[in-house]
Input
Amino acid sequence: MNSQQNSKVKPDVEANLESLSDEKLNKMVTKLPTIFPYAMIPTRLPELYYNMKNKLYPEYLYYVLSIHLCMNQPYVILARMSVRISKIYQIDLSKIAKLKYSEEELEFRRRIFWSFYGADRGEMSFNGSLPTVQDRDIVVNLPTNDFWWRYGGECKAKHPEILLWNIIANNKHSEQFSKDNTKNYVKTQTLSGKINEFARRRWLKKVYNPDDDNNQLMLLIEKLNKFEETIVKNSPIDFDLIKEAYSKYKDTIRFVVDMEHIIYKNVFTQYYFFMKNNLYQTELVRVEGIHIHPERIISAKNILVDTANKQIDLIYELSKILSLEYWKSTTVITGLISAIICLNFMSIYLKDKNKDMKIKIEHLKEVYHKMSNYTEIPVILL
Output
């Protein structure tokens, strides 16, 4: 879009953008990082608050909003085109980019890409779409020091809490507050993409090689176990901190500081259950002429039921102490497989075992009833 076109578009779009009150701005900076953590990966809170307060919107916002007037849901299409054309997925391969941009500008672009990457791999996992960029073609460094990026740097915002955390973040010891959330999120989406690709293609091969198949399966199981040990269990979700933060600091920056890591930890745990279910369900597929030992099938079924039970327990316990608005999006999608596994379990196992499973289903239905206020997806289970 040239400058002449922009001069026409900008006033039209700007006229429809309302000024935000201090109350709305505060809600924005305290809710967005916890409700939409992936979309907020590139965002710096001092800059966001100052720009929104003064209506200093980026140029691309006007372009997207103007296109939206004549095109339904253009965002995914535009994002994919931009990634391919700009080759941002190889930004750390380009010597020109390193000369053209400062380190902070490069870090911002890396975070833009990884935010897109997570959304793209999510589409791939749940909709069966092909990735915009293959993993082997990506040359982008992983993000570093999430805490400094979120709260540090230059601060023009006249917001007491933002100023306080900006001072803390700019301290040379601020790395102690960083939890590698973005880095681990990228690892989560990468592994999820690999497992999804394996599950989709495992039984569609023209020539089946049992040795290759078993090697791929064992490699993914090993990666999944490592993911559990290094990311899920280290450290587990802190329910006591959730209770304290939600009761004392809700709608404050302190709440964001405490909760952002916990929200991510829940994402990693939910995705772990989802990936495990996805992987072991491939053991139950029956293909003519291909035989799997019955003990492997029994083992896979037991693992699936155990995983489903653990996921439903986590969802139910978390729903008691934290509002669903902070974690509904991940749970709606990843929890559905566990629900289906439990329903299938009830149809084939003895009545005494079904009693416990019925309780699990009721717990999940209770949570999904609450979620129906936010989305229609869970209603299919009710």
Q: What stands out?
A: The chain has 16 helices and no strands. Residues 179-381 form one domain. Confidence is low (pLDDT under 50) at residues 1-6.
